[in-house]
Design a protein that fits this description.
Layout (H helix, E strand, L loop, with lengths): L2 H24 L3 E4 L10 E3 L2 E3 L3 E9 L5 E12 L3 H19 L4 E5 L10 E5 L12 E2 L10 H24 L9
Parallel strand pairs: 5-6
Antiparallel strand pairs: 1-4, 2-3, 4-5, 6-7, 7-8
């Protein structure tokens, strides 16, 4: 993979993070960055990919008897993947074994501009919801009722992914030297 193409893939990852952050803010969460922009060190590594929560979501869920608010905290990792199904086949077992123990509440949001037919560009692996011995699978973000994200919001951002990410691919292809093909 060329350096330029890798740069476009990194850019897609950063854009994916921004979209996911905005989706959760619109769902009423307070979103705090805890990934690359913070001092938290790398915690888990799978192959060449680092899994470190990018965000910590916080949302009030109740109050104490004295009226203090109680909050639900959800660590969220966001990853761009061109092919989510292939990623899950290739790294699913390793992901569950390495991350599940250290981050049992981790919610991994996978963003793609090439979802399988009938699937969303925003898919979630919620480690807290996976039964023991079950294969790793993703659900569309708006299908996880516990997260309270509206399908209309997800569809709005899917439209952005479908318009912006192909443009990034074109930029990479335009910068590819003659005689070579962009991946």
């Amino acid at each position: 993979m060329s350096t330029q193409w890798a740069g476009v893939e990194d850019l897609k990852g950063r854009v994916a993070e921004a979209f996911v952050e905005t989706i959760f803010r619109r769902a009423g969460y307070t979103v705090s960055r805890i990934g690359r922009e913070s001092q938290v060190q790398r915690l888990v590594k799978v192959g060449t990919d680092e899994f470190l929560a990018d965000f910590l979501l916080r949302k009030p869920v109740a109050e104490t008897s004295t009226g203090r608010p109680l909050h639900r905290l959800i660590p969220v990792e966001v990853k761009y993947r061109a092919n989510i199904e292939e990623f899950l086949r290739r790294y699913g077992d390793e992901l569950l074994s390495k991350i599940g123990e250290q981050w049992p509440e981790l919610c991994i949001v996978l963003v793609t501009d090439n979802p399988a037919p009938g699937r969303s560009c925003f898919q979630v692996i919620d480690l807290s919801m996976i039964p023991p011995d079950a294969p790793l699978a993703s659900l569309d973000l708006h299908e996880i009722r516990d997260l309270d994200v509206f399908g209309t919001t997800v569809r709005e951002y899917e439209g952005l992914v479908r318009r912006i990410f192909p443009l990034l691919r074109l930029v990479a292809a335009a910068g590819t030297p003659r005689g070579q093909v962009a991946p």
